From TrEMBL:
Per-repeat ranges for PPR: 68-102, 169-199, 200-234
Record protein name field: Pentatricopeptide repeat-containing protein
UniProt keyword terms in alphabetical order: Repeat
Any Gene Ontology biological process: RNA modification
Protein family according to the UniProt entry: Belongs to the PPR family. PCMP-E subfamily.
GO terms assigned for molecular function: RNA binding
PANTHER family listed in its UniProt record: PENTACOTRIPEPTIDE-REPEAT REGION OF PRORP DOMAIN-CONTAINING PROTEIN, PENTATRICOPEPTIDE REPEAT-CONTAINING PROTEIN
Biological classification of the source: Eukaryota, Viridiplantae, Streptophyta, Embryophyta, Tracheophyta
Alphabetized NCBIfam families for the sequence: PPR
Annotated signal peptide: none
Matches recorded under Gene3D superfamilies: Tetratricopeptide repeat domain
Length: 268
């Protein structure tokens, strides 16, 4: 009877305070198998990052009698998605220390965290675990590896992993493209861009901003002109590029023509 009632409550959106009340009932009734579900539902219910919620969920994870890969992976992904990269890696390390076998979601989220904070050692260790766990052919894990190596500037390994991906998606292509752009190899970036079977606004923006940073505004404008869809980042890249080249009047004309200005536009 109590199991059915608690299961029903765990189907609903929960505040942290409600989650704590339900958790008390779970512990009192020795229904600890429901703790992973409680963690998932608590995190799913959080519209934005909450330090209080994250702290509470991590406390549950530490005290669980049986460490659970599902709950731990969900927590790592939640933290990574909300920009708490060091905390996400801390939970991933906790998972590894407890002897849990990571799943693909935990691995990709941890790699994303390493890429964002340029944690080279952590990323290399996770790559080793990817090989050990047999995740080398999982597209979104491979893409996370490409992104990681691109972020730390190892384009040789990034390209090697990229070339091994079967069924590349636009995120895979954008990851390798962004790496070449970031490190100023516009020749390789253009080659990748031309090969892409499908491009989105992120692909176009990468190239426009790359040429703009290189002060090749003629090529930047040509790509900007051809863009099927533009957003504020597209316009800001052109405005910044013209300013860097000392062409203030052109920058002003783009600013005036910009349909939706944001704070970056005004700062630029």
């Amino acid at each position: 009877m109590q199991l059915a009632r608690l299961t029903s409550l765990l189907d609903k959106s929960l505040t942290t305070d409600q989650a704590k009340q339900i958790h008390c009932q779970i512990v009192v009734n020795k229904l600890n198998d429901l703790e992973p579900v409680l963690i998932r539902q608590t995190l799913n219910s959080a519209a934005r990052y909450s330090p209080r919620t994250a702290h509470y969920v991590r406390a549950i994870l530490r005290r669980m009698k049986k460490p659970d890969v599902f709950a731990t992976s969900f927590t790592i992904r939640y933290l990574s998605q909300h920009g708490q990269f060091r905390e996400a890696l801390s939970v991933y390390e906790q998972m590894h220390s407890s002897g849990l076998f990571p799943n693909t979601f935990a691995v990709s989220s941890a790699l994303k965290s390493c890429a964002r904070i340029l944690c080279k050692i952590g990323g290399l260790m996770i790559h080793g675990q990817v090989q050990k766990c047999g995740f080398c052919k999982v597209v979104f894990v491979q893409t996370a590896l490409v992104d990681f190596y691109s972020k730390i500037g190892d384009m040789v390994i990034a390209r090697k992993v990229f070339d091994e991906i079967r069924g590349k998606n636009v995120v895979s292509w954008n990851s390798i493209l962004a790496g070449y752009v970031k490190y100023g190899d516009l020749e390789m970036a253009q080659s990748v861009f031309d090969e892409m079977p499908a491009k989105d606004v992120i692909s176009w923006n990468s190239m426009v901003s790359g040429y703009a940073r290189a002060k090749d505004m003629e090529q930047a404008y040509e790509l900007f002109r051809r863009m099927p869809e533009r957003n504020s980042a597209s316009w800001n890249a052109m405005i910044t590029g013209y300013i860097e080249c000392g062409k203030i009047e052109l920058a002003r004309s783009f600013f005036d023509a910009m349909p939706d200005r944001n704070n970056v536009s005004y700062i630029t």
